[in-house]
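Margin note: ligand = octanoyl-coenzyme A.
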Amino acid sequence: MGYDNIRVEKRGKVGLITLDRPKALNALNSALIGELGTALDAFEKDERIGCIVLTGSEKAFAAGADIKEMQPHDFAKAYIDDLITPLDRVSRNRKPIIAAVAGYALGGGCELAMMCDFILAADTAKFGQPEITLGVIPGAGGTQRLTRFVGKSKAMEMCLTGRMMDAEEAERSGLVSRVIPANDLLEEALKVADKIADFSLPVVMMTKESVDRSYETTLAEGIRFERRVFHAMFALEDQNEGMTAFTDKRKPQFTNK
Ligand code: CO8
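Resulting structure:
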């Protein structure tokens, strides 16, 4: 299908989605959010795709929800139209999504990056929850996910003041996994995604599910969940292939079975 607000490409086993509303710094309007969901659905169904990279432009990953679209809403419209639930689609993706963030990731843009499985940041990246300056609070998980990533003190300061965090501070605080020179960001993100896509897809998906579980449950239940999944791996041909290849001193050939 044709997209007006994003670009969608396949790079081997990697699905690449580029937010593409340059005139609005990739602000997330309802059309873009709908297209993002459609593109993710297609990559989930495509058995050749093992990992997804979500990126924006050099200047902005996304400068937030589209303020001009939201500005005239009243409570009933905001509640009934509900831009946020369709954006949640990103956090429900079963294949991993890497956010490759350069420039601004603000408000809903920062929240979107945090819905991904990990964030690789260009040295130009700036993260923030400036909603308070607009008379609202973060609405797509900012108060919750940012707090889990960076701790209460920093999350509270950012949400209460709208202060932005640069890439170096974001790495130091645990919001991003790594900082990369801006010119190399996409290449590096695709390389990392390619590496993940080469592993056994069911194992990749169950790894993601198990790490995500740690956010939703107690340590004891999380460890029980992990152990059940670990034992279940021995039903996979890929477990046998991975361990046999190690003993044979050769590269494994995973078949996703
Ligand atoms: N929405 C709509 N348009 C935007 C947005 C936005 N979030 N951000 C930038 N734009 C537009 C500008 O209006 C401008 O358009 P025009 O040329 O027609 O005036 C164009 O993009 C370029 O922007 P600037 O001229 O402002 O560029 P600067 O380089 O001077 O400044 C900034 C860049 C600092 C990023 C600035 O644009 C800015 O502050 N933007 C708003 C950031 C913000 O407040 N974001 C939070 C939005 S609220 C939110 O995200 C709530 C989330 C709730 C859930 C989300 C569900 C989807």
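Residues 24-25, 27-28, 33, 63-68, 83-84, 87, 104, 106-108, 130-131, 134, 138-140 surround octanoyl-coenzyme A (CB under 6 Å).
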